[in-house]
Amino acid sequence: MGDAYKLWFELEKEADEELFVQCGGLYFGDKDDPQVTLTEQALIDTNLPYERLTPKQVREKHPAFHLRPNDVALYQKDSGFLRATRCVQANIRLAKKHGAIVHENTKVQEVTTKENQTFVRTTLGNEEEFDRVIVTAGPWMSTLFKQLNLPLRPTRQQIVYLNIEDHPNYFQPDGTFPVWIDSTENLYGFPSDGQITGVKLAYHHPGTLITDLDAERAPVDENYIEEVQSYARKRFPNLSSQVTYSQTCVYTNTPNEDFIIDRASDQSNVFLVSGCSGHGFKFTVLLGKIISSMATDDPSYERDLTRFKLSSF
Ligand SMILES: Cc1cc2nc3c(=O)[nH]c(=O)nc-3n(C[C@H](O)[C@H](O)[C@H](O)COP(=O)(O)OP(=O)(O)OC[C@H]3O[C@@H](n4cnc5c(N)ncnc54)[C@H](O)[C@@H]3O)c2cc1C
C-alpha cells in the first residue's frame, strides 16, 4: 500500500487533478473481533500511525457515527477514497499522451500464441501481432482463457446511497466523516462525495454467483435495501431512509481474496492480472507497474510474487 500511495500521488500530479480525497479512515468492530486485532497488529507491524478510539471518542470526533458499546475503532488520518472514474480516465488520457493507442468499445475475442508471437483478434475484424500482451479483463478472463480454468468466482455486489436527514456537516470529507469499515457486520461506506446526493453504504461479503457475465443485471434487491436502511438507523441516525442511488456490480473473487499476477502457463508472452476480489482498485497503479515490468523484463518493480501465482491457488 505504501508503494501504491506514492504512485497515486505521482499520477495525481501528472494528471493535474484531484484523484485521492484524504478524509481519514475508521475501521471498527467488536473489541473481541479477531479481524480488528489483526488489523491493529498489521498497522503496528508496518509502522503506520493510527489512533485507537472508544465509541465515545468516535462520537466526539465524528458525530455521525453511533458505534456499539463494545466496539473499538482504529482511526487513520492518511486514509481516504479515490475518485475511481477520474483515475481510470486520467490513466487513459496520460497513456495516450505517452503514445498508447486506445481502441475503446472494442472486444478482444481471442489471444493466441504461435511461434513465439502473440496474436490478438478483436471485433475490429482484424488480428494484430504483438511481442508481449498484458490482459486485465476482470471476470471475463475466464472466458478469454477457458483452458486455464482460472480460480475466479464472479459475484453480484450491491451498493446503496442514503440521503442525509439532518446535520449535513457531519457527513463531509473534511475529516468529519471518514471512510469506514464495520468489520463485525462487514459493511463499509464513504462520506458525501460531492457527486451523488447522500452517502454510500454497502456490504462487503460476496453476493450471489454470476453465471452469465453478459446478461442484463437485475436492480438492487428490496431486502438488501431494507438491511442497509436498518443498519443506518442504528449506526447513523442522521441519515434518512430515502435511497438516492443504487447499483449492482461485480467482484472477481479468488478463493483466498489474493490477486492473480502471473504469466499464462500455456503462453509465455501473455501476462495476466485479475481476481482483485473487491479490494483491488487501490492497488491498480502498483499492479500496472508490476505487470508491465514483468512483461518488459524491467527489474524496477520486481517483487516476490509467489502468493499471486496461479499455481498457489
Ligand atoms: C461495488 C464495488 C465496490 C468496490 N470497492 C472497492 C474499494 O473500496 N476499494 C478497492 O480497492 N476496490 C474496490 N472494488 C474493487 C475494484 O473495483 C476492482 O478490484 C477493480 O475494478 C478490478 O479491476 P480490473 O481491471 O481487474 O477489472 P474490471 O474493473 O472488472 O475491468 C475489466 C475490464 O475489462 C474489460 N473487458 C472484459 N473483457 C474484455 C474483452 N474481451 N475485450 C476487451 N475488454 C474487455 C471490461 O469491459 C472492463 O472494463 C470494488 C468493486 C465493486 C464492484
UniProtKB/TrEMBL annotation:
Keywords: FAD, Flavoprotein, Oxidoreductase
Pfam families, per database record: DAO
Cofactor names: FAD
An annotated Gene Ontology molecular function: sarcosine oxidase activity
Origin superkingdom: Eukaryota
Domain FAD dependent oxidoreductase: start-end pairs: 3-293
Annotated signal sequence range: none
Family named by the database record: Belongs to the MSOX/MTOX family.
Name of this protein: FAD dependent oxidoreductase domain-containing protein
Organism: Adineta ricciae
